[in-house]
C-alpha cells in the first residue's frame, strides 16, 4: 500500500525551504505520508514552521491497494479544540515543537467502499443537518460569503460529481475538459450536458445563482 498526503491550500503560504512558493494563488502540494501525524512530522522536517499549518485547508490521503486507487481519508486542521473528540480516531491532537495542532477528519472511506462525511444533510438522506467540520466556515471567511452560499455550492457540485460518475466519465482529458468548461461558463456547459444526456430537467445539472 502506498499513500501520499496531498495538501490543498486555498491561498499560498510564504516559501520555507521551497515548501510552497508565495504566489497569492491556491496551490496543491504532495508529500509521502501515511497518516496526518506522519505528514506533520515530514513537512516540519522540511522546514515548515508549525504556525503555517493553519494555512493548509485540506489534506487528502489517496490509497493504492491491490491495484485499486481511491481516497482513503480527507483531513482538516482546526483551531477549536472542542472539535477534537476524545476516544475518536477521526480527530486528534499533535504536539510538535511546543505547538499544539488539532486535526479532524472531513471524509473517510468505509470498508465496503462507500464514504462517510463529517456532515449530515437531508439532501444526503439524513434526518437532519449536522456539521462536524469547519471547512464551510473556513471557505465562508475566505470568500466573504455566508455559510449557506458555500453549502449550496457544495451540494450543487456534489450533484455534478454524481452525474459524472453516472455517465462513466473517467477519461482524464474528458473529465477535466468538462470541469474547465463548468468553471468558464457554467450555464452553457450545463445546457450542453443536458442535451447530450437527453435529460433537460435533470436535478443533478443546475446552474448556480452567484459567483462560487
Molecular structure report:
This protein is α+β, with helices and mostly antiparallel strands. The protein has a domain at 2-133. It is 30% helix and 27% strand. The chain is built from 5 helices and 9 strands, in the order E-E-H-E-E-E-E-E-E-E-H-H-H-H. The strands form 2 sheets. Strands 1, 2, 3, 4, 5, 6 and 7 form a 7-stranded antiparallel sheet that branches. A two-stranded antiparallel sheet has the order 8-9. Helix 2 (135-143) crosses helix 3 (147-166) and helix 4 packs across helix 5. The radius of gyration is 19 Å and the shape is globular. Mean pLDDT is 80; it is low at 1-19.
Number of helices: 5
Helix content: 25-40%
Estimate the strand proportion.
25-35%
Radius of gyration from the CA trace?
19 Å
The rough form would be described as globular
Count of DSSP strands: 9
Helix-strand pattern, N to C?
A: EEHEEEEEEEHHHH
Structure classification: alpha+beta
**Biggest sheet record:** 7 strands, antiparallel
State the low-pLDDT regions, or none: 1-19
Q: For the residues shown, what is the average pLDDT?
A: 80
User: In whole angstroms, how far apart are the ends?
Assistant: 36 Å
Organism: Haloarcula marismortui ATCC 33800
InterPro entries: P-loop_NTPase
Protein name: Type II secretion system protein
Amino acid at each position: 500500500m502506498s499513500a501520499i498526503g496531498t495538501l490543498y491550500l486555498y491561498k499560498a503560504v510564504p516559501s520555507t525551504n521551497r515548501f510552497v512558493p508565495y504566489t497569492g494563488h491556491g496551490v496543491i502540494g504532495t508529500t509521502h505520508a501515511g497518516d496526518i501525524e506522519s505528514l506533520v512530522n515530514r513537512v516540519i522536517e522540511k522546514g515548515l514552521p508549525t504556525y503555517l499549518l493553519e494555512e493548509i485547508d485540506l489534506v487528502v490521503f489517496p490509497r493504492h491497494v491491490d491495484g485499486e486507487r481511491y481516497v482513503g481519508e480527507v483531513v482538516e486542521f482546526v483551531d477549536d479544540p472542542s472539535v477534537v473528540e476524545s476516544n475518536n480516531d477521526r480527530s486528534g491532537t499533535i504536539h510538535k515543537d511546543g505547538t499544539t495542532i488539532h486535526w479532524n477528519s472531513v471524509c473517510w472511506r468505509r470498508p465496503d467502499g462507500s464514504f462517510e462525511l463529517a456532515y449530515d444533510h437531508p439532501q444526503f438522506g439524513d434526518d437532519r443537518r449536522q456539521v462536524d467540520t469547519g471547512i464551510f466556515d473556513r471557505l465562508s471567511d475566505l470568500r466573504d460569503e455566508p455559510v449557506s452560499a458555500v453549502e449550496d455550492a457544495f451540494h450543487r457540485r456534489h450533484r455534478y460529481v454524481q452525474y459524472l460518475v453516472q455517465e462513466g466519465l473517467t477519461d482524464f482529458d474528458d473529465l477535466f475538459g468538462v470541469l474547465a468548461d463548468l468553471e468558464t461558463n457554467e450555464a452553457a456547459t450545463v445546457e450542453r450536458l443536458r442535451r447530450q444526456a437527453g435529460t433537460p430537467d435533470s436535478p443533478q445539472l443546475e446552474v448556480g445563482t452567484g459567483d462560487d
